[in-house]
Amino acid sequence: MSEAFNELRELAKAVERAAGAIALMRRRAARHHIEGEVPKRQRPLLKLEAGGTQLEVTDKQAAALLVVKGGGGVEALNAIARATGLNSRLALGLAKQLEQMGLVKLVAAPQRKVVILTPLGWEVAEKVEQELEKRSSVG
Amino acid sequence: MTPLIVEIDGMRFELGWREAAALIVMRFVGWGAVTLSDLELATGNYVSAISTVARLKALGLVNEYNVRGFKLFALTELGEKVADELRRRAEGLGLWKPVEEALGGAR
Fold first, then answer.
1. Which chain B residues touch A75 with a CB distance below 8 Å?
2. Disulfide check for A108: which of A22, A84, A113, B69 has CB 3.0–4.6 Å away?
3. How many separate domains does chain B show?
4. ipTM of the complex
C-alpha cells in the first residue's frame, strides 16, 4: 500500500473521529450555554495609568483582577463569581469586559471557564492592590 | 502506520490520526478551549487523550490551563495553523463533509 494512501486513510479517520466528537460536544454544550451580561451596578473605584494609558477600574473589575492575581494569574470564572457576588452570567460578562480592556484572556469551554491575567492586567492588578492598601492604611 | 506530515512556518509535524482529530476538534468546535473528556471523544479513551495532549503540548501546538483540579486545553497560534492546514488538505481530498455536517452547516 502506498504511503500516500496510508496518509489519506489517517486523515480520513481523523476527520471522521473529529466530526463525531464535535457533534456530541455541541449537543452537550447546549445544556451549559450561557450568554455573558455586563453587570450594571458597578461603581468607579479608581483611575490609574497602566501600559501608557489611563484606565478607570470599577469595584467589580478590581475584585475580579485581585481574585485572578491571588490565583497566580489564572483563576476559574466561578471563583470570580463567588468573590464578586455575581451569578455566572454576570461574571462572564465582567470577564468579557476585562478582556475587551486587554486585562485578561478568557479561555472558555461550555462547562469550564478560566480567566488569565495579561501582562497589562497583572500591572493593573498590582496597582489596584497598592492603591487599596494605601487607602486602608490612611483610613 | 504512516503519519500525517504537516509543514508550517518552516517546521515539520508528524501527526497520528488521534493528534489530528484533537486539533480539528479544538479548532472547529466553535469555542476556545476543550476539556480532557472532550478530547476523549476525539481520541477514543482517557489514556489516548492524555498521551495525545502531552504530545501536542510538547510540539507547541496546545496550551494547558490547570485551575483548581480541572484542566482546559487551547490551541496555540501554531496549533491553529496546523489545524487549518489539516482542514485545507481534507477539503482538497473531499473528506471534510462530516465536520461540516457536525457543525450543522455553521461553517
1. 67
2. A113
3. 1
4. 0.93
